[in-house]
Amino acid sequence: MWSLKVAYSALVFPRVYWTKMSRLSPDRVYFSACPASPEKIPVIRVPRSVQNRVENVKQTRGKNNINTSKAGKLLIQSRNSSLNQSVGYTHGKFEQPTLCSKGWKHKKSFGDYFTVNNIKSVAPFVSGSEKEDDIQKPLKTFHKLHISGELVETLERLNITHPTTVQLQTIPKVMRGHNILCAAETGSGKTLSYLLPIVHKLHLDEEMHEEGSPKIRVVVVVPSRELAEQVASVSRSLCAPLGIVTRTVGGGRGVGHIKGVFKQGVPDVLVATPGALVKALRRRVLDLSHLSFLVVDEADTMFDPSFADMLEDILQHTEISRGPGETRGPTRKAQLLVVGATFPGGVGDVLRQVTDLGSMMVIKSRMLHFLMPHVKQTFLKVRGQDKVLELNHYLKRLQQEHGGSGEDAVLVFCNKSSTVNWLGYSLEEMGVPHARLQGEMPAVVRTGIFQCFQKGKTNVLLCTDVASRGLDTSRVRLVVNYDFPESHTDYIHRAGRVGRAGGCEGGEVLSFVTHPWEVELVQKIETAARRRTSLPGMESEIREPKPVIVETKV
Q1: pLDDT digits (tens, 9 = 90+) for 237-286
Q2: How many CA atoms lie within 13 A of 119 on its CB side?
Q3: Of 226, 262, 225, residue with least CA distance to 247
Q4: Helix H or strand E encompassing 407
Q5: What is the DSSP string of 121-173?
Q6: How far apart are CA 222 and CA 229, in angstroms?
Q7: pLDDT tens track of the chain, all 554 residues?
Q8: Are 69 and 84 in contact (CB under 8 A)?
Q9: What is the pTM of this model?
Q10: At what angle are helices 190-204 and 165-175 packed, to 10 degrees?
């Protein structure tokens, strides 16, 4: 067709022929009013730069891509073996990795999958898990942290003999009186990292509160009633031999219940949800003037806009120290301990109102915001209508492997409460026993359901993100993202339900990927896994708030 057009132009315009000027755009054809012999056939002249580009494409088209798969264990394993990546391969600084999920937005990609294999058998937060010069480091004990003998004996009865890395870093600093912001991966033992030094200092403190006055020494604020019961259970196991009293105040109940908690006597340690604690403060049921410790657990949730106002109210009722010197003596102020698996956004705006940000010691895990190297993580591109069948297949396979031994506990995460209910009806028809946990249930019912799951009365729990923050899921072997999480933060918290300190070995995460917007998150996760970097777009430091500039009209 093109040759016909050229011939026609030559006949109509005999004094003009076609050229392609190298100094002009190489993608367009221009008329050149140069004289031409009627005997010559019109030609198209291609610029030298375009010719070189075509030759380079021809030479490189037949060559294979860089081989990222070498001898040894695979880090990335996919359906297409040419996209596998071995543990021994390292991407260059400017090398763009080829992703298994590159074409997952296309409808023909359904059925594709890739796996990020577990390249370590021991969690990185276990002290002594790393090697230097092929020599295993000796495991440290709690005696090295100068914890009281009674507490060490209690820990031994609970089969806890060696501190984790975050505990080794946090406990000495809390005992010296510093305000702490601790961010470490899920399941690394953060609860004991603040409870142990707190209980130790309470035990050694001879100055007790006045009898009959509503004054508490320790307050731990957590986002949910389930987490409050869990933290209180750990605190009671540590405090009971020492005569230190722990109680909980949770949401879902009226002021009468809150008053009833304190009629039994003033506890030394109070674990509370923010809503219940604010109610108690406004009704003047309790007094925080003699507080020694204020702990904000699951900080990324607590500094979320849904809780930030209540947390700010609680902080305003508390005298927070500005350094270790103010935590001693009769006029001492409270230590502030902020703990979480991710750095909370907006933490600087809230904390600068009650303390000096420069005085807070930041403890950050080396693997913060990284994919856990000891947990296998599989991503499966699947149609929405096929997810129930895929879930049923994996549940049956897990049951066959472990024979219902109690080591096959599964958490299935959905994004909405309605999805939890619908999925539950579908699994009932398939004969799969399970329990459901979602935010629309009353708080008391949720607590009972989760306790039954922890005790092994049911092995499959369908839940929303209400079960993804801080809860102890040591017996969980498989986490299924039935609905892919909406952010990297949610993915980290969900995946952190397996591979916990003292939990089952060989944990696995399975994620169903259906929609195009989910593919974008998966591609960022795969890129981070191939490059061995942290997940993008997540806070890693406390940032000083920017000064507010107020414009005034003159």
Answers
A1: 999 888 899 999 887 677 787 888 888 778 899 999 998 899 888 888 88
A2: 20
A3: 262
A4: none
A5: SS-TTBTT-SEETTEEPPPP-GGGGT--HHHHHHHHHTT--S-BHHHHHHHHH
A6: 10
A7: 545 454 445 444 444 444 444 444 444 444 444 555 556 677 778 888 888 888 776 665 545 467 787 777 899 999 988 899 999 888 888 888 999 999 999 989 999 999 999 988 777 777 655 544 334 455 678 888 888 888 999 999 888 888 988 999 999 999 999 999 898 888 888 999 999 999 999 988 754 444 444 478 899 999 888 889 889 999 999 998 888 999 998 876 777 878 888 887 788 999 999 988 998 888 888 888 889 999 999 888 888 888 888 888 898 888 888 888 888 877 788 999 999 887 766 677 777 776 777 778 888 888 888 888 889 999 999 999 999 999 999 998 888 877 655 567 899 999 999 999 999 999 999 999 999 999 888 877 888 888 888 888 889 999 999 888 877 778 888 999 999 999 988 999 899 888 876 667 778 999 999 999 999 999 999 999 999 998 887 765 655 545 444 444 44
A8: yes
A9: 0.78
A10: 30
342: phi then psi, degrees, rounded to nearest 5: -140, 155
Which region, left, alpha or beta, applies to residue 299 given φ > 0 means left and ψ of -120 to 50 means alpha? alpha
For the chain, counts of helices (H) and of strands (E):
16, 20
**Closest alpha carbon to 274 in 241, 229, 225:** 225
Q: Which two tokens stand for residue 306?
A: 């849904």
Taking the C-alpha atoms of residue 92 and residue 168, their distance in angstroms, rounded to an integer, is: 34
For every residue of 356-375, DSSP letters joined together read -GGGPEEEE-TTTTSPPTTS
> What residue type is assigned to position 1 of the chain?
M
Beta partners for 287?
Answer: 215
What number of other Cβ atoms are within 10 A of residue 88's Cβ? Answer: 13
Q: Which residues contact 541 (CB under 8 A, 6 or more apart)?
A: 343, 362
Beta strands, E only, 193-244: 218-221
Token pair belonging to 199: 């209980």
* pLDDT tens-digit readout, 506-546: 789 999 999 999 999 999 999 999 999 988 877 656 555 45
Read off the tokens for 37.
């012999």
Residue 498 is given by DSSP the state S
Residues 6+ apart with CB under 8 A from 422: none
Of 253, 305, 306, nearest to 279 by C-alpha is 253
Domains of the chain: 2-61 (no CATH), 74-124+373-531 (3.40.50.300), 135-364 (3.40.50.300)
State the residue for tokens 């102020």.
333
The length of the chain in residues reads 554
From residue 531, alpha-carbon distances to 51, 185, 379, 534 in Å are 36, 19, 17, 9
**Mean model confidence pLDDT for the chain:** 81
- Beta bridge partner(s), residue 481: 413, 511
Q: How far apart are CA 163 and CA 55, in angstroms?
A: 62
